[in-house]
Design goal:
Layout (H helix, E strand, L loop, with lengths): L13 E4 L4 E3 L7 E6 L6 H12 L1 H6 L2 E7 L3 H11 L4 E4 L4 H5 L3 E6 L2 E6 L2 E5 L5 E5 L7 H9 L1
GO molecular function: peroxidase activity
Subunit structure: Monomer.
InterPro entries: AhpC/TSA, Peroxiredoxin_AhpC-typ, Peroxiredoxin_BCP/PrxQ, Thioredoxin-like_sf, Thioredoxin_domain
């Protein structure tokens, strides 16, 4: 499993967003980024996390942050997710799992004794230069935006 520390350069990526447009991490140079990884669109924990970021979006952007969500769902799934919950931020479709692997969040999981590969829920805070400020390892889906603010305090 990859480990990132404060000051490490965040791996760049280019992938499609929910609108089919190519988005790269480098597109956000000069802005701070909340890059959050989540397992699946339209599941209870992921809904709670996305809605928490939505509800606090203005506050986060006021602090100079862009919010970017990443899962292995496709663009169509992301578009439905965005529409259903009126999400004002970018969702990246990492269908080839390139980004989740670069960030070390594609991991073996265990549910009811069954092992499988999936996305670990993690949030990376990235500065204007593309360097990692901190990594939130244990995400509280209902308070994810507050965790971001606490991590910066």
């Amino acid at each position: 499993m990859l480990e990132f520390s404060k000051g490490d350069v965040a791996p760049n990526f280019t992938a499609k967003n929910q609108n089919g447009d190519n988005v790269s991490l480098s597109d956000f140079k000069g802005k701070k980024v909340v890059l959050y990884f989540y397992p699946k669109d339209n599941t209870p924990g992921c809904n709670a996390e996305a809605c928490n970021f939505r509800d606090n979006y203005q506050f986060l952007t006021g602090k100079g942050f862009e919010v970017v969500g990443v899962s292995t769902d496709d663009e169509k799934s992301h578009k439905k997710f965005e529409t259903k919950f009126e999400l004002p931020f970018t969702l990246i479709a990492d269908t080839d799992k390139e980004i989740v692997e670069k960030y070390g969040v594609w991991v073996e999981k265990n549910m009811y004794g069954k092992k499988y590969m999936g996305t670990a829920r993690k949030t990376f805070l990235i500065d204007e230069e593309g360097k990692i400020i901190t990594v939130i390892e244990k995400v509280d889906t209902k308070n994810s935006s507050q965790q971001v603010l606490d991590a910066l305090a």
